[in-house]
Amino acid sequence: MFTVINLADGVDMRPLELGDAKELAAAYSRNRDHLAPWEPARSDEFFTEAGQSADLTSKLASSAAGSGYSLGLFDGTTIVGRFNLSGIVRGPFQNAGLGYWVDAEYAGKGLATAAVQAIVRVARDDLGLHRVEASTLLHNHGSQRVLRKAGFEHIGMAPSYLRIAGTWQDHNLYQVILHR
Q: Could you give the CA distance from residue 102 to residue 20 in angstroms, rounded to a whole number?
């Protein structure tokens, strides 16, 4: 399953733990302006250690239930990105959703692509999923490139799909089929 995966020289991806809350709060705080256009509006509490501890507690419960996994990108002990494989549905669907971000200082260096490719391999080989889906804002060309490089195909556009930056916004939808 998910263990430590080396993505680049000195940058690893691993499951987040409750003890990562302080560093995760620092990463979100450091990237607050960078992430604001791409994420839901966040309360000030979200950017604190307590806020991240609460979020991680929820994500760890999902992991224990097999319904989601929250992973961090680490440069040493510094968190430089977060990837969530969530909403895992078993039965005939065998599907999960993927969301992610990379620190402003590390964006454009291939880390997101390498991480998404690694997650897709684990989803297929270890989790036995059939499909992983992701969505991007229409103007998020960087994320669209990452998804295409990782084998995702564009499958449509969903109007008013998610409330991002305080506004319901249209999203492009992507999927990768893991077993044909």
A: 16
| Domains of the chain listed by start with CATH number | 5-128 (3.40.630.30)
| Residues pairing with 6 in the sheet | 12
Sheet containing 131-137: order of strands: 5-8, 11-15, 69-75, 78-89, 95-102, 131-137, 167-177, 153-164
CA atoms within 13 A on the CB side of 11: 20
The angle subtended at Cα 15 by Cα 90 and Cα 64, nearest 5°, is: 45
Please give the Cα distance from 113 to 7 (Å, whole number): 9
d(CA 35, CA 27): 11
- Report pLDDT digits (tens) over 142-151: 999 999 999 9
What's the rounded mean pLDDT across residues 34-54? 97
pLDDT surpasses 80 at 1: no
CB 123 within 8 A of CB 96: yes
Tell me which DSSP letter residue 27 carries. Answer: H
The alpha carbon of 180 is separated from its chain's Cα centroid by a whole number of angstroms, namely: 24
Gap between the Cα atoms of 57 and 115, Å rounded: 23
